[in-house]
Design a protein that fits this description.
This protein has nine helices and eleven strands. It is α/β, with parallel strands linked by helices. Strands 3-2-1-4-5-8-9-10-11 form a nine-stranded mixed sheet, sandwiched between helices. A hairpin with a 2-residue loop joins strand 10 and strand 11. The longest helix has 17 residues. It is globular.
Length: 276
């Protein structure tokens, strides 16, 4: 296996098992050198905590990029998660243009919405900026709410396969590969719809009723790591889904662990899956 370097750009929630505190260990577990560009530092994530601290690092991003370029530090993949502003999105686009090796992928998780609503602090202008990043990326990982916002197609909680195909058609119009998460056709299962080169594959797995913070970050990080390691898109999507389910199962029943999934004890199974 070639030794590759990936850059991930997202915030650090010091406690909360999301964003960089998930991405760094999981990408490293995939056997990939992982560089990080923090977009902000928070004492905890924003879900369920009050009074958290927040430091915006937007102003640091251009100087870091300039230094890397001066040192000729380039990347085999760039993977973005939660970005806090339109300016950060613009900086990421610049980073991909300047520091991504030729032919290497930009992987975007447009982490901005869920359950039919934008996250707090985001508005329609942010969505328009995210569209520029998403539709210039090689791989995108939206959930259904984000897919609806990115395409202008009405959001639906209940749907059939024709609705998902419509979303996939619109998302893949610019030529990128789409990994649409949270696709559920019945109450007991959910899955991932992958659109690549005009073909749709669907990987279905059991649905766990309890929701957990950070599962989208777990999924996207494992997908990005598996893909960069050399797995096919469908295999990366499957490995990421199975690992995310295992992390949720490892957390369900522990009422004291309300802020994320206990993914660390499951890392051994991820390494085994990548070696298959």
């Amino acid at each position: 296996m070639d030794y590759k370097r990936i850059l991930t750009v997202q915030d650090i929630s010091c406690i909360g098992q999301c964003s960089l505190t998930v991405a760094l260990p999981l990408l490293s577990a995939c056997g990939i050198e992982t560089a990080v560009l923090p977009s902000a530092v928070l004492s905890t994530h924003t879900g369920g905590f009050k009074g958290y601290t927040f430091r915006d690092l937007t102003e640091d991003m251009p100087a870091i990029t300039d230094h890397w370029e001066k040192e000729k530090l380039y990347f085999d993949a760039v993977y973005t998660g939660y970005l806090g502003s339109a300016r950060q999105i613009a900086y990421v686009r610049d980073i991909a243009k300047r520091l991504l090796k030729p032919g290497c992928p930009l992987i975007v998780d447009p982490a901005m919405a869920d359950n039919g609503k934008l996250y707090p602090g985001f508005d329609s202008d942010f969505v328009e900026s995210m569209k520029e990043l998403v539709f210039g990326a090689d791989y995108i990982l939206p959930n259904i709410t984000e897919a609806s916002l990115l395409t202008g197609i009405e959001y639906r909680e209940s749907y059939r396969e024709d609705y998902i195909e419509k979303l996939l058609d619109a998302l893949s119009a610019s030529g990128g590969t789409v990994i649409l998460t949270g696709v559920s056709y019945d109450p007991l299962s959910t899955g991932v719809a992958v659109r690549q080169s005009g073909k749709t594959d669907y990987y279905c797995h059991k649905k766990i009723s309890q929701g957990c913070h950070g599962t989208g970050d777990v999924y996207a990080s494992v997908f990005a790591g598996a893909l960069t390691r050399g797995k096919s898109v469908t295999d990366a999507a499957r490995i990421a889904a199975d690992f995310t389910v295992a992390c949720i199962e490892n957390t369900v029943g522990d009422d004291t662990h309300r802020y994320g999934v206990k993914f660390e004890p499951c890392i051994g199974s991820l390494i085994s899956a990548l070696d298959d």
